[in-house]
């Protein structure tokens, strides 16, 4: 087995420091988990979903562009994310990667 000369980031040397990623088909499925206290938005570092079906009139959650969120473009944990799902009541938020948009961007860049 070949070993890299790269130094291992000490932030990721134990299970306690690993990122939690959440995978759902639609945004509302994740929000339903939040509302039912099955998931905690503060514990998730990245939400990966196929498509966005969030109602723009939702009274609790909003999708924001990363630059307009408190994360800002330079504060992202994952460089391909471009949206943040925010609970507007308490300002908790999670970065979001929508696979349909991600694939669309990749396809457009290869043509």
Question: Would you spell out the secondary-structure blueprint of this structure?
Answer:
Layout: E1 21-26, H1 27-35, E2 46-51, E3 61-65, E4 83-87, E5 93-98, H2 99-110
Parallel strand pairs: 1-2, 2-5
Antiparallel strand pairs: 3-4, 4-5
Give a verbal description of the structure.
Mean pLDDT is 81; it is low at 1-10. By secondary structure, the chain is of the alpha/beta class. A five-stranded mixed beta sheet has the order 1-2-5-4-3. 16% of the residues are buried. Strand 1 (21-26), helix 1 and strand 2 form a beta-alpha-beta unit. The longest helix has 12 residues, at 99-110. It has one domain. The protein is built from two helices and five strands; from the N terminus they run βαββββα. The protein has helices at 27-35, 99-110, and strands at residues 21-26, 46-51, 61-65, 83-87, 93-98.
Keywords:
about 110 residues; alpha/beta; five-stranded mixed sheet; 2 helices; about 25% strand; globular; disordered N terminus
């Amino acid at each position: 087995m070949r070993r890299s000369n790269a130094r291992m980031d000490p932030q990721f040397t134990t299970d306690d420091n690993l990122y939690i990623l959440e995978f759902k088909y639609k945004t509302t499925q994740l929000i339903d988990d939040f509302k039912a206290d099955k998931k905690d938005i503060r514990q998730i570092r990245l939400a990966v979903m196929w498509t966005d079906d969030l109602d723009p009139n939702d009274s609790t959650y909003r999708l924001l562009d990363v630059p307009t969120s408190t994360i800002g473009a330079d504060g992202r944990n994952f460089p391909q994310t471009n949206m943040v799902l925010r609970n507007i009541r308490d300002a908790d938020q999670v970065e979001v990667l929508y696979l349909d948009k991600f694939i669309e961007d990749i396809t457009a860049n290869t043509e």
